[in-house]
Design brief:
The protein contains three helices and two strands; from the N terminus they run H-H-E-H-E. By secondary structure, the chain is of the alpha+beta class. The chain has one domain (2-73): HUPs (Rossmann fold), CATH 3.40.50.620. Helix 3 (49-65) links the parallel strand 1 and strand 2 (69-73). Helix 2 (24-35) runs parallel beside helix 3. The longest helix is centred in the C-terminal third of the chain and has 17 residues, at 49-65.
């Protein structure tokens, strides 16, 4: 996360990194609303089908429910 934030800074972008341990989808969406973020960037890892179903549901939940644009990157 630190590398990504530093890369954004070098490119002239203001980035914030956060780490959550509870209902991930709910926390990401809540934070986006409170922070009035313009974009949510979320990563995917290209995991196995079973792992992808579990982690992919987080991405899908955020994409489906976020009040802002979501960029899913690998």
């Amino acid at each position: 996360m630190a590398n990504g934030k530093e890369t954004a800074k070098v490119e002239g972008l203001d980035a914030e990194t956060l780490l959550f341990e509870s209902d991930i989808v709910e926390q990401i969406i809540k934070t986006a609303k409170v922070g009035e973020f313009e974009l949510i960037v979320i990563g995917t890892r290209g995991l196995s089908k079973i792992s992808g179903l579990i982690l992919g549901s987080i991405n899908q939940g955020v994409v489906s429910n976020a009040p802002y644009s979501v960029l899913v990157t690998r």
